[in-house]
Amino acid sequence: MLMRTDPFRELDRLTQQLMGPGTWSRPSAMPMDAYREGDEYVVAFDLPGVTAEAIDIDVERNMLTVKAERRPVAKADDVQMELSERPLGVFSRQIVLADTLDTEHIQADYDAGVLILRIPIAERAKPRKISIGVGSGHKEISG
Question: What is the pLDDT along the chain (143 residues), one digit of tens a residue?
Fold first, then answer.
């Protein structure tokens, strides 16, 4: 038998039980990190226990949507569950992407329960030099 001592974790578990698992019409949120790495914007989603086939990624204009479903693991008839904290059901996250990102070339990799999306920065958003005409000559300014 397992003993638990964190009252807030228990409250989270009870809230999850009352609200029930996520459904396609009312999915649960999934944790994520987002950061810029060089000329790419990287978004990482935690999806432990989800198969790659159960993940759906869509981009419509500048709205990125990630949905995933975690189903219960089949158990033998003689198994008695003592503790069940891993949430099941549907998880979803929507992110509004800036116009400066190239949504045509998004790369997705899934490994060890982590979905990593790499979104390149669009060429038009990268810094560039602009020359200024002064009289008959031109000067370059770094921008």
Answer: 444 455 665 665 555 555 555 554 556 678 899 999 999 999 999 998 899 999 999 999 889 999 998 887 778 888 888 877 777 788 888 999 988 899 999 999 999 999 999 999 987 767 778 888 876 655 666 65
111/94 Cα distance (integer angstroms): 21
What's 74's DSSP letter?
P
Q: The whole model's pTM is what? A: 0.68
- Is residue 22 within 8 Å of 90, Cβ to Cβ? yes
What are the helix (H) ranges across 62-135? none
Helix and strand counts by DSSP (H, E) for the chain:
1, 9
Are residues 44 and 116 in contact, defined by beta-carbon separation less than 8 angstroms?
yes
Contact call for residues 55 and 123 (beta carbons, < 8 A): no
